[in-house]
Amino acid sequence: MNGHTLFDKLWDAHVVRDLGDGWALLHIDRHLLHDLSGPVMLGELSRRGCAVANPELAFATPDHAISTVPGRTGQTYAAGAHLWRTLTEECAARRIRLFDVDQSGQGIVHVMAPELGLVLPGLTVICGDSHTCTNGGLGALAFGVGTSEGAHALATQTVRQRKPPQMRVRYSGALAPGVTAKDLALHTIRQLGASAGAGYCVEFAGPVIDAMDIEGRLTLCNLSVELGARYGLIAPDEATIAYLRGRPYAPRGAAFEAALPSWRTLRTDADAAFDCNVEIDASQVVPTITWGTSPEQAIPVDGRVPEPGAVPAGERPALEDALRYMGLQPGQRIAGTPVDWVFIGSCANSRLSDLRAAAQVARGRHVPDSVTAWVVPGSLEVKRAAEAEGLDRIFVEAGFQWREPGCSMCVAANGEQVPPGQRCVSTSNRNFVGRQGPGARTHLASPAMAAAAAVSGCISDLRSLA
Ligand SMILES: CC(C)[C@H](C(=O)O)[C@@H](O)C(=O)O
Ligand code: SF4
């Protein structure tokens, strides 16, 4: 076996210097900055008296610490205003392109970057954010970096990395109706465990991936980090090429055509070996929702919350803690559990296809008074496109709030929180203790499942929605 994996090809093409013992200095093609880690990196650069080596390869947008209330400005969330101000001032001073609040292109960094064509197959992409792996859905080597690594990259256009072992997750079969990339991701994390991918680069492959649209691939790669992996990858194909054609920052005309032969070589060779191989029959996957405080604590929506007695003794305390935090009884059916909040948004699921899926469920139905339901588009482009096809009206008529783009209630870094003890079905990617606010109870699910919960007032199987 001497074939190369997709990851090998991406890695080899970016090695500036082999540092020995598996370490390499890699060239970085794109550096994305957001309002939490960006100001820290830029501040460190100032303290060290360094310039940004290639400002034209860095792109910034505020997303985490800005309000998403309609009519907001960069300062509406007062406690985040200094981050927004620092990001805007530093970007202006250093000639970094900023997609500011209310400007075309603004959005959650992992939504706006693929959408603008800032991310392309074969590029290395970094951001001071663990969900940078999202961009692997386009065949880019994309990974989150710490703020010191990020500052180093701004100054030198390189990062030092140790080549990780590689895992391939191959999905056979086909997804059943109502089952999405999000369900597939939660199912995978449930089956393999939330640290199964730790230390690995994971390539997702197989007929299910070939048939999956690009937004679904971005969702799946987004959740690679919830499997523990820093890198998620999907080989670019004709769907990737079609998605990128005409994007504002993708090459144009003849330059685009000239890129295609090299993009088409970006696939794992038939005789390449992985350190770990996983096969999953995707036909068995059903709509899936988390019940606990880790993405691996997921169950089919028609299933029951686990009983501590059914797990090995060593796992019992964690399970009991999760049940207590979540306010659930062992063995109870998850469907029918009343919810207080629904959040449709985040870099996992706030793209146009996500909003369409949610709107299809919301259309003609109504959110009961007991539920507060928000739709937070992932970017201004998503918002405009959704409005152009009337999705906003469907949501508003059904009783959802239609908001401005940002991370919002995914991490509550902008003060938008689920109140303590309240239960939220969320299309985001993390259900950790306190993630959506102190004491908030999060159930991760697909956009259609979140919409189903909103209109029925409880966790519901969207396949049996009345
Ligand atoms: C704030 C940021 C550094 C963080 C991340 O790295 O992922 C956030 O985006 C998150 O989702 O928890
Ligand atoms: S939407 Fe959530 S997961 Fe994504 S970058 Fe923002 S806070 Fe992180």
UniProtKB/TrEMBL annotation:
InterPro entries from the UniProt entry: 3-IsopropMal_deHydase_lsu (IPR004430), Acnase/IPM_dHydase_lsu_aba_1/3 (IPR015931), Acoase/IPM_deHydtase_lsu_aba (IPR001030), Aconitase_4Fe-4S_BS (IPR018136), Aconitase_4Fe-4S_dom (IPR036008), IPM_dehydratase_rel_enz (IPR050067)
Keywords: 4Fe-4S, Amino-acid biosynthesis, Branched-chain amino acid biosynthesis, Iron, Iron-sulfur, Leucine biosynthesis, Lyase, Metal-binding
Pathway(s): Amino-acid biosynthesis; L-leucine biosynthesis; L-leucine from 3-methyl-2-oxobutanoate: step 2/4
Cofactor: [4Fe-4S] cluster
Annotated Pfam families: Aconitase (PF00330)
Listed EC numbers: 4.2.1.33
Reactions this protein catalyses: (2R,3S)-3-isopropylmalate = (2S)-2-isopropylmalate
Record field: transmembrane: none
Gene Ontology molecular function, alphabetical: 3-isopropylmalate dehydratase activity; 4 iron, 4 sulfur cluster binding; metal ion binding
Gene Ontology biological process terms in this record: L-leucine biosynthetic process
Domain Aconitase/3-isopropylmalate dehydratase large subunit alpha/beta/alpha: 8-457
Keyword Iron: yes
PANTHER family (UniProt xref): 3-ISOPROPYLMALATE DEHYDRATASE (PTHR43822:SF9), HOMOACONITASE, MITOCHONDRIAL-RELATED (PTHR43822)
Subunit field text: Heterodimer of LeuC and LeuD.
Function: Catalyzes the isomerization between 2-isopropylmalate and 3-isopropylmalate, via the formation of 2-isopropylmaleate.
Protein name as it appears in the record: 3-isopropylmalate dehydratase
Species assigned in the record: Ramlibacter rhizophilus
